[in-house]
Amino acid sequence: MAFIYFPNGAQQQHWFPTGDESNFELSPTLAPLGDVRHQIQILTGLDHVNAEPGPDGAGDHARANATFLTGVRARKTAGADIRAGVSVDQIAAQHLGKRTRFASLELSCDAVRKSGSCDSGYSCAYQFNLSWRSPTTPMAPETNPRAVFERLFGDGGAGDLSKRRQQQQSVLDLVLDDAETFRHQLDAADRRKLDEYLTGVRELEQRLADAENWPELPRPAMPAPDGIPSDYGDYLSLMFDMLALALQTDATRIATFLMAGDGSNRAFPHIGIPEGHHYLTHQQHKTELAEKVAQIDRFYVERFAKFLAKLEASREADGSSVLDHSMIVYGGGIADGNEHSHTNLPIVLAGGGGATLRPGRFVRMPSMPMTNLFVSLLDRLGIPEMQQFGDSTGRCDLI
């Protein structure tokens, strides 16, 4: 199960297909998914009401990110007292993580930030993290494809993997020792924050120890990446390749990929769009600028489509594909970027879920919390039945 996030909503007139459930025509934005049409479901009706302003006012982009996988309203703060909820990927990782070398994998092609003020009084931690280990602790994503490759398969010739792990352990030992030396100098609130931090450090220690108990994975034919490509499209594609390798080799079964934090104002001059993405989403009353938003949406879908094609081409021992056994959610926490709406979110569900899903459909569902989808996916992972997750009110009919 993997979750892939794109920012700033979707250009509405270009996103949704036309036709009925099985006989539908892909929209211009989703047209790149044509070759894997039989492996996708385009879903409507999924909402995140906890991303709506409510009493908190501005800050829709931060709330969209923080709510997307948690279903929880993020506390409005730019300080250290951040609070969201445990994300669905981490619920799955808690149950399935022991079966693979890595309990989960977190990726991003944006900044890594856990502090500071980013969106109308919301902490940057909300806007630049998808995965949350606890309500107060996001899982920092990896942004360097070479580091991801080395984590999965070794160091690519740069040195001995066991030596690198020993160095990592030494760093963790120093962190723990230093933290204990000044613990007594902190007030009660700071001690609680330190305890949360140290819990994360100790869990990292355990993950490193667990990784050593697994046999080394065979190195793939591709060389280790040099680092972060200068071209953003190449960067996204390379990170998708790393995600595909992780799933194909069963290094992990749970992953998140934040292509860009919501509110991203990245320009796309390589496809003829010099204006910033976020700026354009608020200019959609101008037809030519709305078209540019749609081009950006399609740019992201093109990379996603190639990723799905890789999983479709990767065969399991029984002749089925990796995608047949996967559940990949692609979407964002904002529906219309101009209105900052959070109802009828743009969501694609890809994969067969081990024959528990029925892809190849355009599914119009009644309005319901996005978390209903998550509960349904957790069911299919064999996780003990959850009565509720986030703001869920039931389950989706996906079969």
Could you walk me through the main structural features you see in this protein, from its secondary elements to its overall organization?
This protein is α/β, with parallel strands linked by helices and 399 residues long. The protein folds into 2 domains: 2-153 and 224-380, Alkaline Phosphatase, subunit A, CATH 3.40.720; 155-215. Helices cover 36% and strands 14% of the residues. The protein has helices at 12-15, 60-68, 88-96, 124-127, 145-153, 161-182, 188-212, 232-248, 277-281, 287-313, 370-380; strands at 2-5, 18-19, 24-25, 40-47, 105-108, 117-119, 122-123, 132-134, 137-138, 255-258, 267-268, 273-276, 328-331, 347-350, 361-369. The strands form 5 sheets. The chain has a 7-stranded mixed beta sheet. Strands 2-3 form a two-stranded antiparallel ribbon. The longest helix has 27 residues, at 287-313. The chain is globular.
Short summary of the structure?
With 399 residues, this protein is α/β, with parallel strands linked by helices.
Q: Which terms summarize this structure?
A:
globular, single chain, Alkaline Phosphatase, subunit A, 2 domains, 14% strand, alpha/beta, two-stranded antiparallel sheet
Strand fraction equals 5-15%
Q: How many independent structural domains?
A: 2
Helix content: 25-40%
How are helices and strands ordered from N to C?
A: EHEEEHHEEEHEEHHHHEEEHHEEEH
- CATH topology descriptor of the largest domain: Alkaline Phosphatase, subunit A
Arrangement of strands in the largest sheet: 5-10-1-13-14-4-15
Q: What oligomeric state is this? A: single chain
Helix/strand-derived category reads alpha/beta
Radius of gyration: 21 Å
Taking the alpha carbons of the first and last residues, their distance comes to 17 Å
Q: Given the C-alpha coordinates, what overall shape results?
A: globular
CATH level-1 class of the largest domain = Alpha Beta
- Kindly report the average pLDDT value: 90
Largest sheet: 7 strands, mixed
Query: How many strand units?
Result: 15
Number of helices: 11
* Annotated CATH architecture of the largest domain: 3-Layer(aba) Sandwich
Low-confidence runs = none
